[in-house]
Design a protein that fits this description.
Length: about 200
């Protein structure tokens, strides 16, 4: 096994074999030159795109937990993400905006983006991903409140089905202090740079 293959999970060869069969079922010749290495390339890509199953988002936050007497809103906005829709295995992508109000503890700012990365690297629906990010931060940091807004474009809507090229889906979830409309509005104003 080469050093490159060591980063991939068990089952890579079997996954590639299935993709070779899929190419044949689609009417292609998996033995033609341009497709010879495609099954393994796709198998590797799928393992990378689903690497979030191997990671613990709660532990990522716990590893960078710091006691701090700060109780105002902390926002990490415009977190780029790419995910795969579990219904069609087509990508959806966009930006996540995350806020929390600390309650004695903060976490490293990059860890919030890492949590988004972990949940987006699984077969997903946008609604569940929004909830998972919020719950992870709530359960690990125990802040005064958490709010997550995700804005995404779904290729399953752009390439097939209704074929609506410019549609954006927005989901949100919140708890604690963000149950107050004023606090939610402050967050929305800040992520959209409104005064």
């Amino acid at each position: 096994m080469s050093a490159e293959n060591e980063i991939f999970r068990e089952g890579l060869d079997e996954l590639a074999s299935h993709y070779k069969s899929i190419l044949g079922l689609l009417g292609e010749n998996p033995s033609r030159e341009g497709l010879l290495k495609t099954p393994m390339r796709v198998a590797k890509a799928m393992q990378v795109l689903t690497r979030g199953y191997e990671m613990d988002a709660h532990q990522v936050l716990r590893d960078a937990l710091f006691k701090e007497d700060y109780s105002q809103m902390v926002i990490v906005k415009d977190i780029d993400f790419f995910s795969l829709c579990e219904h069609h295995l087509l990508p959806f992508y966009g930006k996540a905006h995350v806020a929390y109000i600390p309650n004695g503890y903060i976490t490293g700012l990059s860890k919030i983006a890492r949590v988004v990365d972990i949940y987006s690297h699984r077969l997903q629906v946008q609604e569940r991903m929004t909830l998972q990010i919020k719950e992870c931060i709530q359960e690990t940091l125990h802040p005064l409140g958490v709010m997550v807004v995700i804005e995404a474009r779904h290729l399953c809507m752009q390439m097939r089905g209704v074929e609506k090229q410019n549609s954006v889906t927005t989901t949100s979830d919140f708890c604690g202090a963000f149950n107050q409309a004023k606090t939610r509005q402050e967050f929305m104003n800040l992520i959209h740079n409104q005064s």
